[in-house]
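Complex record, two chains
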Amino acid sequence: MREPEVWTLGRLLAEDLGPTVVWATPSVAARTGASLPHSVLDPQAALPDATRTLIAVGGGTLMDAAKIFRAESRPDLRLIAIPSVWGSGAEASPVAVAQDGLRKRIRLGDQYVPDVRVRWPELADSLSDRGIRRACGDAWSHALEAFLSPLADAPLRRAIAALIGRMRELPIGRDARWFDVSVDACRVQAASSVGLTHGIAHTLEGPLRAEQADFGWGHAALCATFLWPVMSLNLRLSEGTARKFEEEGLDLSAVLARTRLVFDEDGYDRAVGPLATRWREVLRDPCTRTNGVLVRPGALEHFVGKAFAA
Amino acid sequence: MSNREKLKNLVLDVFLLDESEFRFDLLREDIGTWDSLGTVSLAVGIQDVFGHHLSPAEATSLASVADIVAILRARGVDFPDA
């Protein structure tokens, strides 16, 4: 798998990038415009032909849009990714997810890996506490679903266990180390797969954004909200789930405690109705079908009845 | 529940079939959802329900419900009337 170079902000400012355009998530556009000597353009606007470098500053959605644009429309561009928050790992991942109507479509390949990722952790300073918890939940969902994936072989599972050990040392809170850990979590899920948490997130994100626009639903919010309920289901349905943690010497109760910390009960209560409505779509989602435990139609009752909270 | 019923329920749930669509002589090509991801789900389900791990080569070699019965029988799972 291709790896992006890692630069500091200082190096970015010192490099001669040629004609450069910046795409930035609205929450960091002003800061980006004030700090970088390049034009900040709306991603919907046409890119000047002379552009040689595209800098994408923002969250996973904007990053993925830039990756897809570069790979599929302007492969001559150099793509520099600057994450404004951790969690998605999109700044280093060969996976790019695009919204297609109400559905998500996943692309995978080296052509989607940015050329450079830049460390600029101060961009996360303006994020709310809820946003921070969601970002941590996003990273945890990548690592845990990759760990339990039926596509993870023994060496990969061992490597993911070591990563989970590192993640346990980080708070569910602000810590710049999350950026690099999230990249590693994204890398391992690209090498194995994700599971039901992602199947739910991919199915519900589009509808919830449309139906509950005020709540700020996105991929990270959904992963954080459903990770604990899904982990609980996996443990209930198969003894093999706990055995995998035991075999790698991981403290399952400590890991579960992390998933409870990122859980958002208010969000869960808003999302569980739409989950029931779209359960059949969730079951058909490719991520659900590579969950560590077989997800049967009857598993919906676990979510509707909040069996995980009992 | 008999192993025959367990397998039937497993196939229904993995491939999201209606009960009326199930037969023990179903072939892989009869089941639209038996794609590569379906094979992964099936292997996970066999592990969950029967406690037997299939290698990737074994899982991808399955081409019918009868093949599933055969591989489980070879592992000592009893299917008296399948």
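Note: Residues 128 and 294 of chain A are 36 Å apart (CA to CA).
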